[in-house]
Amino acid sequence: MTLSQPEQLLPSGFDYHPAVISLDKSIALYDYLCEQLIWQQPRIQVFGKYHTIPRKQCFIADDDVVYSYSKQTLNNSPWPAPLLAMRHRLQRTYGFDFNALLVNWYRDGQDKMGWHSDDEAELGQEPCIVSISLGASRKFKIKHKVTGQQYELLLQSGSVLVMHGDSQQLYQHALPAQAKVSGGRINLTFRTVGQALTKAYSNGRK
Ligand SMILES: O=C(O)CCC(=O)C(=O)O
Ligand SMILES: [Fe+2]
């Protein structure tokens, strides 16, 4: 995996690298994951109300990782071989052992993720989150928590978005619905979950 220079103007702490994985490989991996992963669509509690999340997800992690999402502990799925290989490659590139991977499947443009920061205590003060996109291109929005300044980025199949430094402290991000998008997209977010393992993963992500 070679990384090209970021091409789009983004706030510090967000680095976008298009075409890190070839288009053919990224689509083949999309198809494989659609079929092979055990997908869940949990109901979560946000501000006291229950919602079914508007996407599917699969949480892949080492056995000793415990991660909760809006008061529900996620079931750890084992690492499929291609994702384990990717984890090791990313470890060599970034120097982090990514022991957890939240996989999101946006079946079409109706599926989405609301504004949030990945700032849970168990990810540490300045987490490094590596986000890989497979399938349909989707808009990704970033918003400064204080000034409200927004940035928009198109996440293309095979791209890598790295969020690091104070990106989670200063900004929120979201994947808005795009009614005209008919294709599906899978997003892989590699994370390192610290040793204080049982904290809540609930941060208002809708
Ligand atoms: O689908 C995406 O690109 C964003 C996913 C995300 O923000 C998350 O899983 O925390
Ligand atoms: Fe996120």
Brief rundown of the structure:
With 206 residues, the protein is α+β, with helices and mostly antiparallel strands.
Description:
- InterPro entries: AlkB-like, AlkB-like_sf, ALKBH2, Oxoglu/Fe-dep_dioxygenase_dom.
- Substrate binds at residues 47-49, 67-69, 119.
- It comes from Pseudoalteromonas amylolytica.
- Residues 196-204 have low confidence and may be disordered.
- This protein has a 6-stranded antiparallel beta sheet. Strands 8-13-10-11 form a 4-stranded antiparallel beta sheet. A two-stranded antiparallel sheet has the order 2-3.
- With 206 residues, the protein is of the alpha+beta class.
- Helices cover 16% and strands 33% of the residues.
How is the largest sheet built, in terms of strand order? 1-12-9-14-7-4
Low-confidence stretches: 196-204
Give the overall shape. globular
Number of DSSP-assigned strands: 14
How many domains? 1
Strand content: 25-35%
Question: What is the CA–CA distance across the termini?
Answer: 32 Å
CATH topology: Jelly Rolls
Mean pLDDT: 89
The first-level CATH class name: Mainly Beta
Largest sheet: 6 strands, antiparallel
Bound molecules: 2-oxoglutaric acid, fe (ii) ion
Helix content: 10-25%
Computed CA radius of gyration, to the nearest angstrom: 16 Å
CATH homologous superfamily label? Alpha-ketoglutarate-dependent dioxygenase AlkB-like
What is the CATH architecture descriptor?
Answer: Sandwich
Helix-strand pattern: EHEEEEEHEEEEEEHEE
Summed up, the helix count is 3
Summing up helix and strand content along with how strands pair, one would put the structural category as: alpha+beta
Pfam families: 2OG-FeII_Oxy_2
Binding site for substrate: 47-49, 67-69, 119
InterPro entries: AlkB-like, AlkB-like_sf, ALKBH2, Oxoglu/Fe-dep_dioxygenase_dom
Binding site for 2-oxoglutarate: 104, 106, 116, 173, 185, 189, 191
